[in-house]
Amino acid sequence: MNSSNTKTVPSYCYNCVAGPDPMKVEVVDGVATQVMPNFDACDSHPGKGRPCVKAYGLVQKTYNPHRVLQPMKRTNPNKGMDEDPGFVPISWDEALTLLTDKLNSIRAKGLIDEQGTPRTAATFGHGGTPMYYMGTFPAFLASWGPIDFSFGSGQGVKCVHSEHLYGEFWHRAFTVAADTPYTRYVLSLGTNVDATGGPCAIARHADARVRGYKRVQVEPHQSVTGATAAEWVPIRPKTDAAFMFALIHSMLHDHPRNELDIDFLRDQTASPYLVGPDGLYLRDPDSAKPLIWDSEQQQAVPFDRVNVIPALEGTFKVGHAISVDADDERHQLNDIEATTGFNKLLDHVAQYSPDWAARICDIPADTIRRIASEYLDNACIGETIEIDGATLPFRPVAVTLGKSVNNGWGAYECCWARTVMATLVGALEVPGGTLGTTVRLNRPHEDRLRSVKPGIDGFMEQKLNPTDKENWVAKPTGRNAHTTLVPIVGSSAWSQALGPTQLAWMFQKDRPEGFNLPEPTKPDIWFIFRSNPAISFWDTRSLNKSIADFPYTVSFAYTLDETNWMADLLLPEATDLESTQLIPIGGTKFVEQFWKHKGAILRQKVVEPQGEAKDFTWISTELAKRMDLLDKYNTAINRGAGGVAPLRGEGYDFSLDINKAHQPDEIWDAVCKATSTELSNNEETKDLDWYKENGLYLKPIPQKSWYLYPTMKELGIRFEMPYQERLLRIGKELGNRLHEKDIAWWDEQLSEYSALPEWHDIPGRWETALKNEGADPDDYPFWLLATKSMQYHTGANVSIQLMREVSQNVRGHTGVIMNSNSAAKLGIANGDRVEIRSNIGVTIGRAELIQGVRPDTLVIVGQFDHWATPYAKDLEMPSLNTIAPMSLELTDATGSGADIVRVAISKVKGETS
Amino acid sequence: MTRYAMTVDLRRCVGCQTCTAACKQKNGTAPGVQWRKVLDIETGEFPDVRRTFMPVACMHCDEPPCEEVCPTTATQKRDDGLVSIDYDMCIGCSNCVMACPYEARSIAHDVKFAYGDKPMANEAKMFDPARIEVASKCTFCIERIDQAHEQGLTPGVHPEVTPACVNSCASGAMLFGDIEDPNSNVSKLLKETQSFRQHEELGTGPGVYYIWDKNDEEL
Fold it and tell me: Where is the 4Fe-4S ferredoxin-type domain (chain B) (predicted)?
């Protein structure tokens, strides 16, 4: 469109964790008309300046006639699906008065309730991305005090949860990716990176395909990523651990040792650490340091003795050593036989042959052996590559895991096996290999390399929740009990939201026998933003009832939806194209954002807000002013809570007067100046106007920062692989603490704390759970999986017509995916209206029949089954979430559950094909 | 002479429909009208199944069947290879819709907006009444191409004069340019790779080239 009043405005899209991605918006006569790439960032953004399809929905998102455009208050005191909330419009002044009155009453009672949990709770959506749309609200929350983030909106069941926890534990990898630009071979178990990896992942993998890398996609249905892979291996659901155990077996038992990276195993991992007959590391009696076997002097010595060549394999006689068990229980060990951690692995996986796995996984043993061979063939053992002038190992093989492989039961086994596979060929954190992206449980978030510090036993320092008698947190500080039950989630700012969030919901309704923890309370006030847990979690009908029981809910609302149907106050925030915020960009970040730059990018008011929608920063400042918290609020902004840099640093000071209420532009101008000054080491200062014109400010960073290996080597730290003595000990300690309080309901989860994970009939757990609920597993013969959609994934955009329209071109977006042959046996034809039934409920949609799915598996794309959200409620799309039970029995030790449920399917009665 | 053409690298495409959305937005097409889209195609039987993504739109043929059947000469092939429609001349007879072997054309008979009868602000701004009751299809963003000369820019090189779909493609699957120019992006890519055009046997001379993997030949 050409017009003299046409301009293009730079901004960003961060609707999912794969972002942020730069974009531009065309504005004609003050109206946003189209989204387009920002080619100014073409050479720096790994996605070449392009946003994904979701960004193109932002124009409709702005002008959607179903938006909430004025503050609203509830008039119906009763809450429930069948209760019309009776929202009536009110002024901002009245809305903020209602809110501040409520907050003041809470403050008067005390910020912590009688059970020791915060009276204020908040739930924000996917992967922290709402932060990048809420302006300075984090500064307001910081000024307020304790907030409970226990109530998840899908965390733990919709994310790659176990990977977050174990990934950071082993290699500071909140999420894990292939080093796609360099890799030759990727084994992808359900990683749907071409649907959820954003433009960065899509562009990197497209380049790699053209270059000729091979990706083998192992998953029950052929996803978008399966379609673009060189090979699809349709594995039986939840048997991935068996498949990977067999790959490790084959690598260790079918191939000569020289196909492994022996030097890496010996020098960079715990493989040579000696393990005694009690399953614990043998330790030096004086220093308690783990022992290794000096292959030249033929004696056990502490692991850090210099000029020693440790034995990687073998059995050795050790005269005197100690072991340290849970609760620092020390055992004196004399004249014992010890073996190495590597040997323990070797013996452990001997039982897991490809022939054994073939029966479990429904994958031919020869295929498993071939994949193991291909992986080894491509590992390039001994080769090096120059990166930024440094010579690094070149190991171009990677293993990646997708949702439901790396959460819920079996996830520990898969995360461990993936990391072991990388370790065996030295492909962990080196060019071409398996890499972590960023850290969230550890600090600093912006630089995972700096989060690595030497810790005990030659490994990285870990900030775990204590399990010793003196320091264990017996009384949970939040409603999901993350500090009490999950040691490796830690207690940093992100930990609570990454705790067992389904427990918070579950325990609102039912608590296990012998609960013996403080009875969970309801939050006095619950903030909700960019999140719809009544749709995006599990057992949503039951969850709705919990939400309805919350006494006071405040929703920063875009449209009416299933969660804010139960709200007391709706506050319309100016959305993506209507408000201002500066955020970090670049560096390394999930999913495959590996940049050679880092800096800051501005989201700006592309167009004036619709109706009475207000910039979130304005709302936050108003709240702080009315709550008499301006000093704390502004202090938090000055510390950097509102942006990407503290407003005062070495050589610069743009800090705000802490006693004044500042307008959004004034705040962001200070943040822009501080950020650019800090990034440029005081060489230049760019203000808000500069960012509005130019969009983003970047500085180069070395590619070497993508890889953790050089840092580990420099600090003399070993990867804590393959033997998990620490986790074993922590699990025992946690068990001791829980049992001291007569808590036995977490015992099954404690079984996950093993030094070497064992196969334990993971899919069978779902059948057992059905039996324990009084159901017959034979009545639910199918596995139902959920998979993500690029058009919708965390976009909060189900009411956007454009997304609906274009998604209809991608299979799975009209209903439930089913194997054609299985459907024929049940008399189901393509397009038939079908009901999918679990033991707790039913969801209805249209059958979409294909060949690219296992006969025993059904797949639902996205998260639907809306009943309140305008437009979406008329789509009649099924949802796994409606019929997936929340079950303690199906919760793993990290508190996560796999996004999978046993179901039956049939044509809706009375309907013909 | 100039002959604008498009290349679509099937090795890259992930079927994300970003091009579909970008086209709809840039051209302000009504709900349900897609001048381009990506097909999601399955072949084979479980477990030997292949799923392929194939972007489709007007092929801007050398010998356009749509032009041949147009009774009013509304559809014309230009010298630069673009097949254009003059909406003022089109009578909406549908001959071209039926003649196109690529199902690239459609006719919007009713005024439609995303949410009912009332246009949103962006729809009101982009609405073009001339496109009701007439044939429409991908134009290769013809007005951008037409600005190239006066702006001294090159289609396929400069985003301002390149089709929106090509600009938007997250996987970089699409390129645009002059295949008569041996140094254009498309010419160089076509020289380096193997490609096919849809229904070449019909003799239409499509202007969209699909690049594919030599290994796929065996499948």
Answer: 4-33, 49-80, 81-110
Domain range for A490: 72-88+108-160+463-514+521-572
Q: Of the candidates A52, A226, A234, which has its C-beta nearest B170's C-beta?
A: A52
Residues A332 and A194 in one domain: yes
Q: What is the mean pLDDT of chain A?
A: 96
The C-alpha angle with vertex A338 and arms to A332 and A340, in degrees rounded to 5, equals 125
Contact list in B for residue A798 (CB cut-off 8 A) is none
Q: Is residue A151 part of a domain?
A: yes
Tell me which residue of A220, A703, A170 sits closest to A434, measured CA to CA.
A170
CB within 8 Å: A852 and B51: yes
The residues pairing with A755 across neighbouring beta strands, listed in sequence order, are none
Q: pLDDT (tens digit, 9 = 90+) per residue, A381-394?
A: 999 999 999 999 99
Is a pLDDT exceeding 90 seen at residue A795? no
Q: Does A7 touch chain B (CB under 8 A)?
A: no
Cross-chain CB nearest to A206 (options B114, B116, B172): B172
CATH topology of domain B4-218: Alpha-Beta Plaits (3.30.70)
> How far, in Å, CA of A364 to CA of A250, rounded?
14
Each residue's pLDDT tens digit, A172-215: 999 999 999 999 999 999 999 999 999 999 999 999 999 999 99
Q: Hey, is the C-beta of A883 within 8 angstroms of any chain B C-beta? A: no
* Residue A78 identity: N
| Residue-wise pLDDT tens digits, A50-69 | 999 999 999 999 999 999 99
A52 in B contact zone (CB under 8 Å):
yes
Name which of A115, A187, A168 is nearest A504 in CA terms: A115
Cα gap A264→A342, rounded to integer Å: 12
Domain definitions of chain B by residue range: 4-218
Of A383, A401, A436, which closes a domain?
A436
Residue B141: Cβ within 10 Å count: 23
Task: Assign B172 a pLDDT band (cuts: 50, 70, 90).
Answer: very high
- Residues in Cβ contact with A731 at an 8 Å cutoff, skipping those fewer than 6 apart: A750, A752, A753, A754, A893
CB contact under 8 A, A65 and B118: yes
**Residue A170 belongs to a domain:** no
Say whether both A547 and A467 belong to one domain: yes
Are A773 and A870 in the same domain? Answer: yes
> How much is the pLDDT for B215?
57
Give the ipTM: 0.98
A797: pLDDT strictly greater than 60: yes
Q: Is residue A323 one of the residues assigned to a domain?
A: yes
Q: How do residues A674-686 score in pLDDT, each as one tens digit? A: 999 999 999 999 9
pTM over 0.95: yes
Residue A120: inside a domain: yes
Q: Tokens 């076997």 label which residue?
A: A293
Instruction: Provide the residue type at A198 as one letter.
Output: G
| Alpha-carbon distances, residue A280 vs A305, A333, A819 (angstroms) | 20, 11, 48
Q: Are A412 and A561 in the same domain? A: no
Boundary residue ending a domain (A554, A572, A590): A572
Contact between A437 and A175 under an 8 Å Cβ cutoff? The reply is: yes
Closest B-chain CA to A856: B46
A482 and A425 housed in the same domain: no
CATH code (residue A818): 2.40.40.20
Instruction: Give the CATH number, domain containing residue A360.
Output: 3.40.228.10
- The tally of domains found in chain A comes to 3
Task: Assess whether A243 and A120 both reside in one domain.
Answer: no
Cβ neighbors of B117 (< 8 A, separation 6 or more) are none
Least CB–CB distance from B18: residue in A32, A52, A232: A52
Tell whether A546 and A488 lie within a shared domain: yes
- Residue A419 and residue A341 share a domain: yes
Q: Which of residues 532-571 of A touch B (CB under 8 A)?
A: none
Of the candidates B26, B51, B121, which has its C-beta nearest A63's C-beta? B121
